[in-house]
Amino acid sequence: MAGSYQDLDPVTFEVLKNAYVNIVDQMAEQIFRTCYSFVIYSRDFSSALCDANGDTIMQGSGDIAAHVGTLHYTAKAVINAFKDDIHPGDVFVVNDVYQGGTHFNDTRIVRPMFYKDELLGFAQANGHWADVGGAVPGSFNVNALDHMAEGLRITPTRVWSKGRCLDDVCNLIASNTRAPADIIGDMQAQAEAAKVAEQEICRLVEKYGLDVIKTSFGAVQDYVETLTRQRIDALPDGVWETEDYIDVDPGAGEGLVPIRVRMTIDGDTVHYDLSKSHPKSIRSFLNACFGGSFAAIVAGTKMQFPEIPLNSGFYRVVTVDLGPEGSVVNAAWPTPVAGFCSGPFEKIMNSIFELWAEVMPERAMACTFNLDYLLIGGRDGREAGHKYFMWYDWMVGGWGARNGRDGWAATGPVFGVQLGTQPFEGQERLAPVLTTCHELRVDSGGPGESRGGMGVEKGVILTNVDRTVVSYCCDRERSITWGLWGGLPSIPHGVWVNQGRENEKYLGSLFSNEPLQSGDLVSRPSAGGGGLGDPLERDPQLVCEDVADGYVSIARAALDYGVVVKEVDADLAEYRVDHEATLAKRAFIRANRLKWLQVDPEEIAAKYRAGELDMLDLIRTYGVIVNWGSGELLRKTTEQFRAMLLRRAAPYWGKRRSPGEDATVSLKVA
Predict the structure, then answer these.
(1) Strand, helix or coil at 581?
(2) What pLDDT sits at residue 645?
(3) pLDDT per residue as tens digits for the range 428-473
(4) Spatial separation of the C-alpha atoms in residues 404 and 35, rounded to whole Å
(5) Cα separation of the two ends of the chain
């Protein structure tokens, strides 16, 4: 029985609506306190309640954005696979990306919720398993040509039958991973979380009656739909479009890979068209199936309306056209997609932020840093028998500058804001690594009238390892975190091994199975957020304070902001602005910055190789992208990057935009 929220008295409806959020949060607490793997303990998990059709009743208050919009697909996959063969006490597992999942590590435990013998719906607990097999530790294989090289694909599979655990099936799954004990433990933790949800729903049935609870399942979805339509209907109709980029298709030579997003607001609906994105999947794992791309659409849009709860009612208002199967945003079997989170997902979300900045400029935010995963796996020499270890690390970084406010520093990625910063003590206990630094990265915030948030620098030394390799899943080494409305980019992502030593090696932002030895130093930065507004319009005193705080160097204050800062007493963090020199510096930059974007890029690359220009000179002043290890010019990438600066930055230089004002250059096309 489905029903409108108007069919219930307002008090009962409000109590039940919030009760469902609370139940999902209870599931999260159960997983957090009983999981086995450090990855899930660091909150890489999400949960949901679904009705008997598989539609989402409610998400929790702290779910990962990448999982949003996909859990109903998983419930429907179980329904389609087992139909009437679903019984009280059953539990199913599924991670199939081709049936609405995200990537194979995100493994969903689905438990049908029964009251007596009547199926009410499904409770679902999703967790990122640290390893699901495949060719590399952590199952993030950059070089995978198909999903078989990524890990175990689990189509909907029964793992508990009428309350009895099917140990043979569970062991079969766990034995195809590098951490079988963790997998069994996490599977049990997720199953128990789903059981908590069923118990709580049954308790509500006993209190309010079966008909009221079944009616409320549909009512909360109708409520979200109505509320969302009201918010959309109050906005202007129109069509807007933009594009962002993945760094490279390794099978097609250098050059940025476009992700194109077209947004249409028509009355009380919003529609996204991604069909003009790169038409083929790329020769790497930075592809997304429909579930991952849809999740990015939902998460990016939902962030514009934080007050609206999230369930399938939202999906009735927000529709998507991903175009034909086989593209980078709509990958088909057997395309590898483990890196979707660092590839299309992150680019789609930031594109949506830019599009909505045209509709609601008061909420504008520039590009945020790119999610990264560093995975080091091998044998732990600290223990007898050299037990297998996996060190699975992700970074905090900077969010984009906002309209009138600087961006947040050292914050979780938009992929999953609630991802915990993993405690170093726990990492060092579980793996043979020693953290050498974790600090804010100076000059990482994209310059702008509002400055982007700060990224961080992290380094680790391997202490006692054997047969160990490192893999890295990231992007924005070339399509660097961009600014908005005249703001400038941040810094590139990329990993160094033994930086500053004689045997230093630059590995970049996308690689797998690079060998490591005891004593090797692995270091990387996370980008900051892009700047918003012309950096020459930033208050010089704010720039001076940024220098005092260690956010901006004296050199980049002059080069990026045109502010000449003099040191008074570094120990006391006392600095002052030379106002006369600042006026002259800003006038010089205004007169030349468009010309600098026309300089022969090979000339600039040669100066970088000779040490006459640094990385930020190339990115922010000349718009030139090179291989940051060798200095080799990436000519096609540079052309695309300069075109991006000429579209996102140059037209706004010398101008200001306030909430409600028209853009100098609009993304509106109709």
Answers:
(1) helix
(2) 97
(3) 999 999 999 999 999 999 999 999 999 999 999 999 999 999 999 9
(4) 42
(5) 42
Angle at 470 between CA 31 and CA 332, to 5 degrees: 70
Q: Is-cis flag, bond preceding 236, omega within 30? A: no
Each residue's pLDDT tens digit, 173-232 = 999 999 899 999 999 999 999 999 999 999 999 999 999 999 999 999 999 999 999 999
Query: Quick one: average pLDDT of 387-405?
Result: 93
Tell me the Ramachandran region of residue 98: left when phi exceeds 0, alpha when psi lies from -120 to 50, beta otherwise: alpha
Question: What is the count of structural domains for the chain?
Answer: 4
**Residue 610: domain span:** 598-654
Specify the range with the lowest mean pLDDT, choosing from 383-387, 426-430, 509-513, 588-592: 383-387
CA atoms of 225 and 143, how far apart (whole Å): 42
Q: What are phi and psi of 243, to 5 degrees?
A: -150, 150
Residue 403 DSSP code: T
Q: Which amino acid is at 130?
A: A
- Considering the domain architecture, whether residues 463 and 546 belong to the same structural domain is answered as no
Residues 519 and 582 in one domain: no
Same domain, 14 and 163: yes
Q: Which amino acid is at 61?
A: S
In this structure, the strands spanning 318-321 and 269-273 are parallel
Does residue 211 sit in the same domain as residue 75? yes
Is residue 482 in some structural domain?
A: yes
The 3-state DSSP class for residue 79 equals helix
Shared-domain flag, residues 205 and 164: yes
Side chain identity, residue 620:
R
